[in-house]
Design a protein that fits this description.
Elements lengths: L7 E7 L6 H20 L6 E4 L6 H13 L3 E8 L9 H6 L4 E5 L13 H6 L2 H14 L5 E4 L5 H22 L1 E5 L13 H8 L2 E5 L1 H8 L4 H14 L1 E2 L10 H21 L3 E4 L12 H9 L3 E4 L3 H13 L7 E10 L6 E5 L14 E4 L11 E4 L5 E10 L4 E11 L12 E6 L3 H10 L5 E5 L4 H11 L2 E4 L6 H20 L1
């Protein structure tokens, strides 16, 4: 779907001329070895580019300016091999427009007990050099991730890899375009939001179109293109007999293919990577674009129902972040509860649009009536989701800031079949439990639409929120309602004061 190796993070090492040329040559060699090891790590999906050691304010400023101007550079990994006086970093960090992760490591893993001398001590000063750098970043109120440990440790490389994926996600959001076909579902609050503020903060450009603009493109699709797509679908899905070629509902499948091809053309021609629809704005369309949306999401497009542009953008960003990881990512909605005291659960679904990337097995393609939207019966793919850990993430506009709420969940098997509910669905237990999880989510103003991912964890989302300057709330095993209420109050005060500075 996407190649993350086209993106770069720059490995930038700080030092100073105090130690002499020979010492700096050794610092440079050590830095290159670490950068090369990170570049080769299976945990880090982007290219790690070594940059010569910086030892002056001008050199630091220059590398930060170069990073800003390099389109495919998504951030920096900074490391202080020796002591790098932090006033040298002020001009560069003030200029830097890309995120950075502070790797607090040292070249040697162990202290060489029998050989350590003052020359070794002068050269290997990461322990206090990193603290000097940390002070100036904190003094300048710069959000960043700090990773501590030896650079060869798998968990250190994993944490850096998580950060790089978040950096790619942030880069994606800054450059993405979202198409909205129709407006928000009328009278719904949480799907609204300040699109101008979102563009100022995150860079994403949200554009609105009448449904007629899309219908005009759909009507240009040729029968031969539809024939090819229908054949592809019959080969790759469990297609109901009545939808196959020669079946009495085959024309409905052809119409779904026409919608998909038209949508894809509209999005590709306009450079859009995410989109929204709403069943209240469908004039000129014969059926709701259910199956078409599912297939487009599987190819990496973001989607939000009922005009929910924030969830559409977040879906695409999370799909990009998850490139190459096991599991899938989908638009989702908490639909209904199972409140049996012996095991309370959430059934997640939507009336049509759940992404096939989270499906267990080959989805079935079926046609069923839908008592909403006032259109012909829509096509949809139907499947369940395999057990295992996942997260739900939701982005809301709280008026003075954007908020990201994340809740880890455990997906479980459905205890019984649901033959009369022809939708894609997942059954899960929220952390720490349904009562606490739902209470905290509601107190946070969490939306009913989410992005559900079996590929990402809360750590990815926290790193992403940090880069984006977005409020981050985690509802997990350690959540208690009394402490969560306090966090909400503290955050309200912080963002109120921060907005005014």
């Amino acid at each position: 779907m996407h190649d993350l190796k086209k993106f770069e993070v720059w490995f930038v090492t700080g030092s100073q001329h105090l130690y002499g040329d020979e010492a700096l040559k050794e610092v440079d060699a050590h830095s290159k070895k670490i950068a090369d090891a990170l570049d080769e790590s299976s945990q880090i999906p982007v290219k790690v580019v070594f940059k010569p050691v910086v030892t002056t304010p001008d050199a630091i400023y220059e590398v930060c300016m170069q990073a800003n101007q390099k389109e495919n550079c998504v951030g920096l990994i900074t490391w202080m091999h020796t002591f790098s006086p932090a006033k040298m970093w002020i001009a560069g960090l003030k200029t830097l427009q890309k995120p950075f992760v502070h790797l607090h490591t040292q070249f040697n893993r162990d202290i060489p007990w029998s050989e350590i001398d003052m020359d070794f001590m002068n050269l290997n000063q990461s322990a206090h050099g990193g603290r000097e750098f940390g002070f100036i970043a904190s003094r300048m109120r710069i959000n960043r991730k700090v990773v501590v440990g030896h650079w060869q440790d798998e968990d250190v490389q994993r944490q850096v890899g998580v950060w790089t994926r978040a950096a790619v996600g942030f880069h994606t959001m800054k450059n993405m375009k979202v198409a909205r076909f129709g407006d928000n579902m009328r009278n719904v609050a949480v799907t609204e939001g300040d699109k101008v503020d979102a563009q100022i903060k995150f860079g994403m450009d949200v554009k609105g179109y009448g449904i007629c603009d899309l219908v005009d493109v759909i009507e240009t699709i040729k029968d031969a293109e539809i024939d090819t797509l229908c054949a592809e679908i019959e080969s790759n899905y469990q297609v109901a007999d009545n939808l196959k070629k020669g079946g009495d509902r085959h024309e409905s499948l052809r119409e779904s293919c026409r919608i998909e091809l038209g949508l894809r053309k509209f999005l590709d021609d306009g450079g859009f990577s995410a989109f929204t629809t709403t069943f209240e704005d469908l004039h000129g369309m014969k059926q709701l674009p259910g199956f078409a949306v599912q297939r487009l999401m599987a190819d990496g497009y973001g989607f939000g129902a009922e005009g929910d542009w924030k969830t559409a953008a977040l879906t695409h960003v999370m799909k990009i972040m998850a490139t190459g990881l096991e599991g899938g990512t989908s638009f989702m909605e908490d639909y209904t509860y199972h409140l049996d005291p012996s095991g309370q659960k959430v059934l997640g679904a939507h009336m049509l649009e759940v992404c096939e990337s989270i499906a267990e097995g080959t989805p079935k393609v079926e046609i069923h009536p839908l008592g909403i939207g006032g259109k012909e019966d829509p096509i949809r793919s139907r499947f369940s989701v395999a057990p295992g850990p996942a997260i739900n993430a939701s982005m809301m506009d709280m008026g003075n800031r954007f908020r990201l709420v994340v809740n880890p969940v455990d997906v479980v098997r459905q205890p019984q079949e649901m033959p009369k509910l022809p939708v894609a669905s997942a059954l899960w237990i929220p952390k720490p439990d349904l009562k606490t999880g739902a209470t905290a989510w509601i107190l946070a103003g969490g939306a009913h639409h989410t992005v559900f991912s079996k590929a990402l964890t809360a750590e990815f989302m926290e790193d992403f929120a940090e880069m984006a300057g977005m409020e981050f709330l985690l509802i997990d095993e350690g959540t208690t309602i009394s402490e969560f209420k306090k966090e909400l109050r503290w955050n309200d005060l912080y963002y109120h004061l921060n907005r005014g500075i």
